[in-house]
Amino acid sequence: MTLKVQNTLTGQFEEFHPIQGNKVGMYVCGINTYDDSHMGHAKSAVTFDVIRRHLVRKGYDVTYVINFTDIEDHCIERTIKLGIPLEELTEKYIGEYHTDMGKLGVKKADIYPVASHHMTEIIAAIEKLIDKGFAYESGGEVYFDVTKVENFGVLSNRKLEEMQAGARVAVDDRKKNPWDFVLWKNKKPEEPFWESPWSEGRPGWHIECSVMSMKYLGESFELHGGGTELVFPHHENEIMQSEALTDKQFVKYWLHGGLMNVGDDKMSKSLCNFFTIKDVLKDYDPQVVRFFLLNTHYKKPIDFNQKALAEAGQALARIQNTLDNLLAAMENAPEGDGDFAEVAKSAIEKFDAAMDEDFNTRDAIASIFDFSKEVNKYLEGQVTKSSLESALETFKVYDEILSIFQFENDAGDHMLAPLMDIIIDIRQKVRADKNWALADEIRDRLKELGIEIQDTGVSVKWKRI
RNA sequence: GCCGAGAUAACAUAGCGGCUAUGUGGGGGCCUGCAGAGCCUCAUACGGGAGUUCAAAUCUCCCUCUCGGCUCCA
Q1: CA distance A164 to A168
Q2: Which of residues 436-455 of A touch strand B (CB under 7 A)?
């Protein structure tokens, strides 16, 4: 199967082919390191985590880079306010980011470049842009001249002339054109600064991403991702700068995720309507949060609300319950033919096909519900060990990509399992005597301890809750 | 104003010209001593209007409405 992606650059669904061989360079804009990550950041991280996992499953040799922006207004404001060095602030929030995303089952990227560690390369890139005539110095600052390039607006479909007509940006005297953007800024009092040929100051936001992505992934690479709000101007400017520097196509496929909304607004720091990952994880399992995020196609916005999260919890529990029952049934399943293997195999094919359609996790999840139903039906009849194993394999493929299941089997608990066997044995005798009051009491009291008993037609199952 | 994404049953989501959509919730049934879980089944859909086609939720055009972006931003 060929992977298809919807490329923001063309607006089209395109077959995905690496520039050469099976190497895939993937760059995603990470966070600004001045505060805890919120659910919007989680959506982005989980989205691209799943995309990366699917690419790896398809056999691509993926190099995944997520950057940290630590030279930016908020970070600088914060470091001044707290009176701590920028580095300390950066370290703190990089640590928090890894903690939060780790809990959400996001696999680590290969490289996490930090803007402030790349000052030499950034300055060199700005010098080169000046040399090539794409940038100019003005009062100690350096600006990119958007009239010098042909590719203004290729990503967001804008034309410079139209932008100028409807311009509502205040014109800065130092700029030749309102849409020119800053590559190097003068320092302000108290701000951290770096030496440069133009002034003591700091780089603009956009050039940081261009430099870091090309340093680790080469002058042309396959995938660049981020949230839709970054399309203009951030990613647009990255393209202009990078292609001006190299005369090559910067990125082949641009992928943009829909934003996390709260009611009618997008979730953001500036609107103060955000829910941090830490807060949400107080009330919901990380698997539930992932399921919630992946239950909608990544291009679409998601409305954040408690009802939706609760619903995600119930829906996920349905599949997890099937998996629990499957694991329990494997304990003492008889040997025999794997007559379920075909069903398990075609389920994987459906799942992979959904993922190949621009990472359609929603459709992939629908296929899991279908398979789950098949497994439940199968479990009601005569089972064989090899059939159950093939079903388990399918769940493992699901989890390799989505990471939303728990596989530990309480039946494997060396102390608890034999103990539960005894309790259940005795309770079965009580039930045989139709002493329902006592049987229910055992069940109720176990539940108070956090162990749930389920009487099915043929056996008794238990699990921790 | 410009650019982009949308409008699918009670709600949330898939659907990329023909094939009983998925979950939550609701009705009915089966299984169960009961509970839970599970299985079967039913109802409620494609924003409005034209067109193309043997065939449209899907393609084209028009209209209405929603959301996002337009140099803080995942």
Answers
A1: 9
A2: 436, 439-440, 443, 452-455
